[in-house]
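Aim 2 progress. For High-affinity iron transporter, the working sequence is reproduced below.
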Amino acid sequence: MITSLVITFREFLEMLLTVIPLLVYLKKVDKSQYQKYIYSGCFTGILATILVVILILTQIRTLELVVQNVFQGSLMIFLSALILYNIVLMNNEKKYFDLNAPEKMNIRTTAFNLFLLAFITVFRESLEIILFNLPYFMISGFSIILGTLLGILSASVVMYIVYKSSLKLSATMIFNIITLVLIFIGAFMFGEGLSELMPHLGESMEKTGMLLYSIPTLLIFIKKSLKSLIKK
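Predicted structure tokens for this construct:
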């Protein structure tokens, strides 16, 4: 449940950090009539995610047990790589919860642009939430659903507080904490993925994979954090 909660919180928060400032900006510049395109983009993104998930689940059920293990192991390794990409290799420029961010961006306020931005944001983040939770859903569906709901609720509460208080809160510490947790989640996924692909090696492969993933990733994260502090 903790894994699902943390991942959902992070992805849903990133989703809100794109959508909410746009809605606030449109209201501020007296263009509330464009908000419906953002809402429709969000709805379409969720619908597209559901369709993709149904397709994936349908294909998984047709696989034999051995192939399912290979698929699950490969998926876990892919997701651990995705975590690595998100938390280490990407330059995260979201250092503040800034509801005025769209004013600093060159945004063409057109129906299509707003719809497309909302659709891509919601579809990408929602699909990542589903993919991260998919390997564990068949094992413990209830805890995954509960963790996902708590993650969505937690992210919504954070954005609600920011919206109501009109604060410009530094998000660096929050994202750093989440990053550390995700590193260990990624290590667990990588190790378990290797054990699924090579079950004859047992727990030793899982532990080796976790160490191979977590140690260099932590070193890269610490190095990156130190560079940021030095620049300040």
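The chain has a mean pLDDT of 76. This observation will guide construct design in the next reporting period.
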